[in-house]
Design goal:
The chain is an alpha+beta fold. It is built from 9 helices and 3 strands. Strands 1-3-2 form a 3-stranded antiparallel sheet, sandwiched between helices.
């Protein structure tokens, strides 16, 4: 994929010399813009010409203003891997730079909900509240307002020491509260008093 390079020069004559240098080194897609001696181009005409050379419209608007002031411009669509050499050739001819504002890299976002992914700048694997639903196709058992314990007719919190036996009406294995020692027939080491 070619990379588009824009380079401003003090005049069109200098820009034409830089373009000839690029063509001599094998760059085929080179365009020169700027007012020739005795011409007074309009900003709209320059902007339209730049857009025809596949310069982004926002960039063309900024560059056209500089061209109306008398600057020269070289636009080269450098093949993959040859953009750095083209920039070096343009700088050697006295390039004033691209004239375009440099885009700042986006600031990293931090989300409180996913602190590890945010701090490591990794994508979150899923944003679903219940990820099991996505790959199983089964509804979640923890839907709002629905509890499994209510369906089974026993509360989550109970005041009895044996909630499952009480809810199902089963007898308790040991009445005294010393389950292991009573089941094995062993005496208690410490008597409660």
């Amino acid at each position: 994929m070619p990379e588009t390079l824009c380079s401003l020069f003090p005049s069109r004559a200098v820009a034409e010399a830089a373009a000839a240098d690029l063509v001599r080194h094998g760059y085929n897609d080179v365009h020169v813009f700027g007012a020739r001696p005795g011409e007074t181009p309009t900003r709209d005409a320059q902007m339209e010409a730049l857009c025809r050379a596949y310069v982004l419209k926002a960039h063309a608007r900024l560059l056209a203003a500089r061209l109306v002031e008398g600057a020269g411009l070289v636009v080269v669509h450098a093949p993959f891997g040859r953009a750095a050499f083209a920039e070096r050739l343009l700088r050697r001819r006295g390039s004033l730079g691209s004239g375009l504002p440099r885009e700042a890299p986006p600031a990293p976002r931090y989300e409180e909900a996913t602190p590890l992914s945010s701090s490591l700048q990794l994508p979150v694997l899923t944003r679903m509240k219940h990820p099991f639903e996505a790959f199983s196709g089964l509804p979640s058992l923890t839907a709002p307002g629905w509890m499994f314990s209510k369906v089974m007719a026993f509360d989550l919190t109970t005041r009895t020491a044996t909630p499952l036996s009480s809810a199902l009406g089963l007898p308790v294995l040991c009445e005294r509260g010393t389950h292991v020692s009573s089941a094995l027939g062993l005496p208690l080491l410490v008597q409660r008093g």
